[in-house]
Amino acid sequence: MKGDGPADLQVIDRFDGGVGWLAYPDETMQRASHALATPDGVWVIDPVDAAGVDDLLVEVGEAGPGVSEVAGVAVCLDRHKRDAAAIARRHDVDVYVPTWMSGVADEIDATVSRFRSDLGDSGFESFVIRDSSLPPWQEAGLYNPETGTMVVPESVGTAAYFLAGEERLGVHPMLRLTPPEGLRSHGRPERILVGHGAGIHEDAGGALEGALRSSRANTPSLYAKTLKGFLTG
Q1: Maximum pairwise Cα distance, the chain
Q2: What is the number of helices (H) and of strands (E) in the chain?
Q3: Domain of life of the organism in this record (predicted)?
């Protein structure tokens, strides 16, 4: 599911305002990391480290609308500590964790700051996607109303194990029967960046609506596909 050994950085999302990459392109989980160019500097979201990441951050910063340095590293899902601490220490910045997220800060070997409704002065607003104990799941989304860019770390994705039927974007297998309807509260995003797989850069609002609408109906086919993969893989 997860790659190990030497990483092989592959850019998957490149757009006016940021970039996304896979450190292990061949892994099943398709763990995606993102760097967002903002007036506040470059914000790194849920990163998996790899050789070449720092060069990518410099490139994003130089093309950005303001400060070119890294402003901070944000962890937006309780399970996505990943390599946040290592990258933050290397750039002498803090790791930012939502104020309401528990059990994360103590496990990060770097200076931790907390954020609530806004991610610094980046222009990205933070919102709660899920905060539950069963299953244990704390997830924050990010949304920039000026650019229409939304970041969803886990609840939806484009990796193969998220998708059923003709879906371009799929709800996480564990949430299929209780899809994250609150994602609709921000209108129709123009771009959705996800924590697993490449982002959606065309008709993102339509892809999100389709994912939420088909989530329950497509659950049997997704589970059947997953089971078949395990049996034949």
Answers
A1: 51
A2: 4, 13
A3: Archaea
Which ranges constitute the DSSP H helices of 64-182? 84-91
For the stretch 27-67, pLDDT in tens is 999 999 999 999 999 999 999 999 999 999 999 999 999 88
**Minimal CA–CA distance to 192: which of 138, 233, 151, 135?**
151
Sequence-distant (≥ 6) Cβ neighbours of residue 171 within 8 angstroms: 155, 156, 162, 179, 180, 211, 212, 215
- Note the pTM of the prediction, 2 decimals: 0.95
What is the total residue count of the chain? Answer: 233
Q: Which two tokens stand for residue 60?
A: 């994003």
Domain boundaries, the chain: 10-232
Task: Give the CATH fold of the 10-232 domain.
Answer: Metallo-beta-lactamase; Chain A (3.60.15)
Residue position matching structure tokens 């229409």: 148
The tens digit of pLDDT for each residue in 95-115 reads: 999 999 999 999 999 999 999
